[in-house]
Amino acid sequence: MNLPALVHSRDGALFVEDCALADIAAQFGTPSYVYSRARIEHNWREIQDALPHARLCYAVKANCNLAVLKVLAQQGAYFDIVSLGELERVLVAGGRAEQIVFSGVGKRADEITRALELGIACFNVESEAELVVLNRLAAENDRRAKVSLRVNPDVDAGTHPYISTGLKDNKFGIGVEQARTAYRDAQAMSHLDVCGIDCHIGSQLTQIEPYLAALDCLLALVDELRQDGIDISHIDLGGGFGIQYQDEQQFAMREWADAIMPRLEGRGMALWLEPGRRVVGDAGLLLTQVHYLKQNGDKHFAVIDAAMNDLIRPALYSAWQQIVEVAPSSTAVLRDYDVVGPVCESADFLGKSRSLRVEQGDYLAVLGSGAYAFGMASNYNTRARACELMVDGAQTHVVRRREALESLWALESVLP
Ligand code: LLP
Questions:
Q1: Is the minimum distance from the CB of 63 to ligand 1 under 6 angstroms?
Q2: What local confidence, expressed as pLDDT, does residue 3 receive?
């Protein structure tokens, strides 16, 4: 069995750092998300070391747990947010407003106002209509807004259609052909300081070429803007750095830097990035227990206590995530199982046709669950969301308690 860096085996039992997953399961119950502090820090440093001068704005949506944000704030992270909720989270975790970049196509007036009051680093503006609203709100609040326009370069990132964002059919950004006009308009607005240009072409990219195509498109625009007297001081190339879930090729950040940096040389523009998945994706797993084994016709099922509400990526994107035995049983027969949850949907599977040696009661770990896992979890089927744990050396900390059932209907009421 090929194990990724997050877990290692000691006498057949799986560990995260110095904590045995079977012990964690026995102590905290299942399902639970388990993150490794050391792995998050390692991933962060790997990106920063490859790009020592780049400003890394962690994409909070990938994993917004306060403990994760705090670990990254301690590494000197900036933060890319897409909602008021994410903004407040970053502040609670110890991030500062000047370290926040605000992305997203649908920022509400109250969200913009709060960000203006706090004086965030930059608004990544996604439409002309948003520019107008931002300028009006800045004027009303007697503030100035630092602005970057998210340009849609119409580049195919070669990723799953649901997570591709840089094609002109996507809702994101301002079309490259309208961008020059949008910049001129922004420059003329009284309360905006135009300072940047940005793009984010998609997530889980495994090729560097689409970044180069997007960069060239943005640089051509930067040259045109200079002719218009608009100086761009930073270029933000978004996130999207893919990780290896199965047999994808994960490019090294150093390779990426070697391809990108020469094109920025001599331009006097700072590079900003918004990595999410590459920071946390392989730093977490979903720990779950096998409740039943069953057979329908020729098909074998392992019914586990985690479900699509805990990890929706397989159902939503047909995503493949490795599933491993936490302590392989010596007596169980090796079989191909569909690993399914208790939710009443046929899309409720975490893996199909997985070769496993399991018995009822055994624990399994779904790897690659550090990003877009808890953050996309729901209470479907009135299932309480699982707890989040962070391993730090030989200690496991509860960084979000398992939800209490009563909390699931606490905000509801019945008619009088
Ligand atoms: N910046 C912006 C503006 C974004 O929209 C995103 C992700 C990122 C940065 C971070 O991208 P990353 O480095 O994590 O690829 N739920 C999907 C992924 C959705 C990504 C949305 N935007 C999944 O589970 O695969």
A1: no
A2: 75
pLDDT (tens digit per residue) in 234-253: 999 999 999 999 999 899 99
| Ligand 1 atom nearest to CA at 203 | 15
Identify the CA nearest to 216 among candidates 136, 271, 153, 293: 153
pLDDT in tens, 123-153: 999 999 999 999 999 999 999 999 999 999 9
5 contacts 38 by C-beta, under 8 angstroms: no
Closest-lying ligand 1 atom to the alpha carbon of residue 372: 24
Task: Using the predicted structure, report yes or no on whether residue 167 has a pLDDT greater than 80.
Answer: no
Instruction: Provide the strand spans (E) within 200-318.
Output: 234-236, 270-273, 284-296, 299-304
Model pLDDT, residue 161: 77
Name residue, tokens 């699982």: 386
- Rounded to the nearest 10°, the torsion over CA 301, 305, 310, 311 is -30
Q: Is the pLDDT of residue 370 over 60?
A: yes
**Would the CB of 198 count as within 6 Å of ligand 1?**
no
CA-proximal residue: ligand 1, atom 24 (nearest): 372
Q: Quick one: tokens of 126?
A: 């996604």
CA angle, 255 then 3 then 65, to 5°: 75
CA–centroid distance, 203 to ligand 1, in Å, is 5
Would you say residue 1 has pLDDT above 80? no
Q: What is the pTM of this model?
A: 0.97
Are 302 and 356 in contact, with CB atoms under 8 Å apart? yes
Q: Which residue in the block uniquely carries the two structure tokens 């897409």?
A: 82
Dihedral angle of Cα 324, 329, 332, 338, to the nearest 10 degrees: -20
Locate the domains of the chain by residue range: 7-35+281-409, 103-275
Q: Domain 7-35+281-409 classified CATH 2.40.37.10?
A: yes
Q: Report d(CA 279, CA 208) in Å as an integer.
A: 18
Q: How far apart are CA 143 and CA 152, in angstroms?
A: 28
Active site residues: 344
For the domain covering 103-275, report its CATH number: 3.20.20.10
Q: Does position 91 have pLDDT exceeding 90, yes or no?
A: yes
Burial string for 122-150 (b: 16+ CB within 10 Å, else e) reads: bbbbbbeebbeebbebbeeeeeebbbbbb
Residue 284 sits at the vertex; the CA angle it makes with 345 and 339, to the nearest 5 degrees, is 30
